[in-house]
Amino acid sequence: MASVSIKKLGVSFGSLRVLRDLDLDVDQGEFVVLLGPSGCGKSTLLNAIAGLLDVDAGQVWIGGKNVTWEEPKDRGIGMVFQSYALYPRMTAEGNLTFGLRVARVPKDEIARRVERTSELLQIKPLLGRRPSQLSGGQRQRVAIGRALVRDVDVFLFDEPLSNLDAKLRTELRVELKKLHNQLGSTMIYVTHDQIEALTLADRIAVMHAGVIQQLATPKEIYRRPLNRFVAGFVGSPSMNFIEGKLVGSNGAPALQLGGGFEIGLTGYGFERMPGEGRPAALGVRPEQITLHPNGGGASTFAVNVSLIDPMGADSLLWGAVGTDTVSVRIGPDDEFSPGDTVTAHFLPEHASVFDAETGARL
Amino acid sequence: MAEARRRRLKVQAVIGTLPMIAVGVGVYIIGIAFTFYWSFTNSKLFPSYNFVGLEQYRRLWASDRWLIAVHNIWIFGGLLIAFNLVFGYLLAVFMDQRIRQEDLFRSIFLYPFAMSLIVTGLIWQWMLDPNLGIELTIHSLGWTSFHFSPLVDPDTAIYGLVLAGIWQGSGVTMAILLAGLRGIDAEIWKAAKVDGIPTWRAYLFIALPMIRGALATAFVLQCVGVVRVYDLIIAMTGGGPGISTSMPAVYVIEMITSSQNVGQGMAAAMMMLLPIIAVLAVGGVAMWRRNRRARAAA
Amino acid sequence: MTTGDATLTDAAAVTRWGVEPSGVKPRRFSPARLGIYGFLIISAAFFLIPLYVMVVTSLKTMPEIRLGHLFNLPQTWTFQPWIDAWLHACTGRDCFGLHPGFLNSLKITVPSVIVSIIIASINGYALSFWRYKGANIFFGLLVFGAFVPYQVVIYPLIIAAREAGLFSTLAAIIIVHTIFGMPILTLLFRNYYASVPVELFKAGRVDGAGFWQIFFRIMVPMSVPITTVAVILQVTGIWNDFLFGIVFAGRSNWPMTVQLNNIVNTTTGVREYNVNMAATILTAAVPLAVYFISGRWFVRGIAAGAVKG
User: Which residue of B has its CA nearest to A51?
Assistant: First the structure.
């Protein structure tokens, strides 16, 4: 029973309210990523789950037990930190076993767990070395090992890959996913890197200003962001936003731009029908726009090309739509030049429309 | 052109640091050389140049006072440093617990260091005076069989000095060790908490090994102070009762001044220098070896 | 997680905490917290009691002191001991109290602090930016010197002072303090200047400035923090000095510490404890004042002087 449940959690530092009324349910065996920019409260939430912070309101449940006031060691969790936090004067093996020795786990049990963990993480040859003699990737593996030997069902990760270089980050990311598949444990992972989130998570909780903006699968978050923040935060290069007013609420909805030009929105699934003339923003991703007339969507708008960014496999075309800037993914063989005016096609079903005032999805 | 200018500027640098050169060479090379030389002469009040071989050293090591002084410095130094490190670390650990009036406590623990050793010596001379200090106070409270006047008895006087030294120096040790503790990454403490390591074990087995730099600094600072200790002895016991609290530093000064036996004093001074050189040599070799290893690994 | 399980564990939690855990954890006045404050308060008492005893005794009359009761507040308050200590106590042949010693300490401390800091800052500056050949050897010699006990070199210094005709003068003791302050202060300044971006120095060179100009125009204005620390260290160390004072300064220049020792330890006859204690406090007053005023700087000074690589 290794689910994690947060009920109406509130955390303040002095007079600063970091988390307010936060609810989150993580199923057993699920990999949930807390994603957001610095200061959004994701690390605070993780530390509250771990018991390293005291909460001001609400409850934390782990494995069906109310652990709101329990010490971290009694919560059945293991934790991996950004700076590895390995005890520098002990060997890797010492780091793995210190907690177990303090808890008076029998020696043969300790040996068994160390064997199993070091086998799993391929750190057997490193056991006799001190952290200073290990590379960044090796240290992080030992840090993960230290959490694994605790024989718990819930693992917390606080930006564990941020200190590593890009190549190492990709390697360890793949290994973490494999580890999750092998162990089937519940994992809660904090990061500001959306690639990590999209590749690792079963579900992502996008956080901003202490509030979970959206909790959904990576696919859902990418395709149907619930508000403008999530839409702009996830996806690289980020989603384009075109501002305007909604007109034609019955029959043929469209976005009216400043100059009077209208972008047709027929086919878009409106959750709620806004009033006529409501200011809104159309969100459409660079890869959802095509500049070729056939195979493109029914809705179109004109783009004044300003610059082309070659990015290897394909290129990014930047242009102006009225006063807004948009980027479009184009193929390597497409020939466009700055100054051209091209027609962008897209399918409204795949796009998003956000209320200009609240940012919520319409 | 530029070369000449650069040379001219470097000359300015040399001129600017003339005092350092003068002191380095003048005091520490020439000065020590003279002390070394005079230790082999029979200088009385003024330096003489009559060579007497190892006579001064022979007399030195036959002198009761000197032997007691050497014995004392080891006891005093050993006890003082050990107590200061332990007590200082305890204070640092407790101060690291997010104490509300941390600044106030720190001021209280450190102020003895701001006072002269003469002042410290006098204060504790009075505190340990059976006619005036702690013993008298406890007696007047009714407990008349209480004894706490180590300075009266030649066998225990040295412990009175240690007490004064602890009072004076443990605050500084605490400050240095606390600075070391504060330098430990916060995530280490978090990891220990998640691992279920009790706080006292974390301070003993995780934090303490991590602050070796601060420990070394505190230790060295103490050592240097112990070898030099002169003012404290003069103020507190004057070397007594009798000669029971003689110390090498006091012996040297006494030989040079009141005993008018410079030759003896110089011999004693050279003996004081020997352990310093030995320790520095060992430390230097250790550091050289570590550098060699680091360079080989790079 | 079924509701059945939830109520089961809620009950367990209730029995342990008395209430279902939610929100702010109850602040148990744990014995551990009590023990921490207890230890610190007892330690603080250990450090403060001697000072308290001194102050209180210095305000009592001699008959009252002879009764014992070291910790009682004075029954009859008197400031006479303080006046006696300052003006009338006998320091050997003269009986003018401590105030000549106070003036002497000032005459010794102020110039010594200034000279030693100026020289050490130039040293630190030269070692950081102008590493000429052999500079590090001389610096190494200085650092070695920091470990050498004063008694090893004191006699050669005495002879040198005598030969120079400076023995028992103010100049002698100022020079001596400069000499023995040099190692630590130079280290302090050198470490400080090492953290100054070398670009500032290079910019000065490009502008055509020389050794002294860069020092006075660029480095000195930037050195306020470290100079403050150095001043605090030196004022405390020099004012509290005894050995050099008694050896090099000469009878007419004896600092307060020497006078104090004379008043207390060398007078025959009746010991006037209250006067002695007042005298002791007066002698400790200046460094204590510096300490309390400078507060955090003092700690920073120790940490800075202690961080020697």
Answer: B194
